[in-house]
Amino acid sequence: MLKSTLLALREIGFDEVFVFDVSQKPDRCRENLLRLRELYDRMSKERKCVLYSPLEDYVFGEGNPCASVVFVGEAPGEEEVLQKRPFVGKAGKLLDKTLSVAGIKREDVYITNVVKSRPPQNRKPSQKEIQSCVDYLRKEILIIMPKLIVCLGATAVEGIIGRQMSVTKLSKKLFDYPLKSGIKVFVTYHPAYVLRNQGAEADFINDIKTVAELLSNL
Questions:
Q1: β-pair partners for 70
Q2: Would you state the pLDDT for residue 15?
Q3: Could you give the CA distance from residue 104 to residue 211 in angstroms, rounded to a whole number?
Q4: Are 62 and 145 in contact (CB under 8 A)?
């Protein structure tokens, strides 16, 4: 069973798979994993996202399929496309380091993006590009059913909350996810922004530490 599942995941683009503890709710986690696999398989066939390119293909989410928290970024970059994994470039390394500082293991969370293909020159996705792909993000969230969604940057806010809003105005506040009761939303900077603006690093670290505290209380 495990071998066939790993082979199936490889066929749809997963070159590396995290092994996580599902001992508490193994049936739910196993079911979520299969449903995510079906979603990504359908997404590959439908090719509805405007940014799709057969030369680069999609970069799907990864992590614990029954995670308490889902981190949502903007879009994959060049390194993410090469590895077919989200947040593995410089921004991903900063996120990993900050998660570790906050006592959060990457393999315990789920990480994905609003759009699953790389925009040209890594520019911000357009509203049309976001709308063509955001339904898959919403389905990911409804499958995983986390306690908390962490929006990394303004594009993630637009995808999750449904409108353009300033990260600065929303930071350090807790919101209800508009599409499903019982899920909270927390907003912080995208780690790529932090790399370009070193003065934001302390706030970013504190925000991720706040995420860890929220997870223990939600």
A1: 110, 149
A2: 55
A3: 9
A4: no
